[in-house]
Description:
Blueprint: E1 6-10, H1 15-26, E2 30-35, E3 51-54, H2 60-66, E4 72-75, H3 82-87, H4 89-110, E5 114-120, H5 142-161, E6 164-170, E7 172-174, H6 185-195, E8 199-202, E9 208-209, E10 211-213, H7 214-226, E11 233-237, E12 243-244, H8 245-256, E13 262-265, H9 280-286, H10 294-308
Amino acid sequence: xxxxxxxLITGGCGFIGANLVRILAERDLxxxxxxxxxxxxxxxxxxxxxxxxxxxxxDPAVMDxxxxxxxxxxxxxxxxxxxxxxxxxxxxxxxxLATTFRVLEAxxxxxxxxLVFASxxxxxxxxxxxxxxxxxxxxxxxxxxGKLGGEAYCHAYASAFGMRTAALRxxxxxxxxxxxxxxxxxxxxxxxxxxxxxxxxxxxxSQTRDFIYVDDLCDAIVRAMDADELAGEVFQxxxxxxxxxxxxxxxxxxxxxxxxxxxxxxxxxxxxxxxSVDISKIRRMLGFDPKVDLEEGLRRTADWYRENWRPAS
Length: 313
């Protein structure tokens, strides 16, 4: 990475951020983190791996000094999740689209050209599978709409101000440090199995998702951050493997070794039924190739939970 030596990660104390700090630290980069700790935990960051500023990345008083001397920004900070955005769309807007705009504007003021934006497959929404970058988006939730708006602002700032931006549409990410993501499938299933509780699936279990292990996701982030020719590009980041939720629950039971039941409840609003992702663009342009299959990734994640997670008393 000849052009990128100092990286700022917003939301760097969160699930993905903590894993990204670990991977960037192995590349001997200087890392800064801005996190308000509403969802993050500074204990996730190994001592000495990053300079951490506790504060809101939407606040210029926080971001302006943090951006001094920075070569690239990875913007992970956001309100997360479809269901929470349906319950509270105002909070989702402020923490999602409005925050992304303010981070882009802070980068423009500071002269920071490179920015990688954490988007989501929910930005595409209700489209005919497989999802790819050329489909007409139809977001089903405020969360997806906010991420779609963020993609548009990234493209606009690339076009208007010459920034090298990339929006990465993350599929369903799982892995270590995800214990606070209790509304998502893999963390929920693992925690239920470890406590001997039944797994609950919302729907009949035939709905599908593309699950990507966090180290593979971080590899995609690093590739986008280092690319020189990007200007507002959008990439689907996934494995290209479509898996029914029922199969994921059964795999989790197997890797944990838990004898629990799988129960079914009604589908939740705002969620797509099927997720099938075409990752040919990111493979072609960035050389991305996910390495960790689902069973191995679930095994690594379950091992982390056994060693690091304890249920709330």
